[in-house]
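Kindly go through one protein, given below as sequence and tokens. The question is how this chain folds according to its tokens.

***
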Amino acid sequence: INIISKNSIPLQKIDIFVNNVYIKSTKTAPFSFSLNPMDIQNLGPQNTIRAIAYDIYGNSGESSLVFQVN
């Protein structure tokens, strides 16, 4: 998964959550990560991944999407 900021202010960190459970943080651009569904214990048929991004001034924004596991 790649995370792209459309803001001119640099990002400092991104926190990743699956079903509201913290998975990891990334602090290095380009901001990307991968998941192995077998490593996540709380998965169901329908799940939500959420990314919270923090800029260098401490402002935050978030985005989420739903994914399915068969």
User: Anything to note?
Assistant: The chain has a mean pLDDT of 89. The radius of gyration is 13 Å.
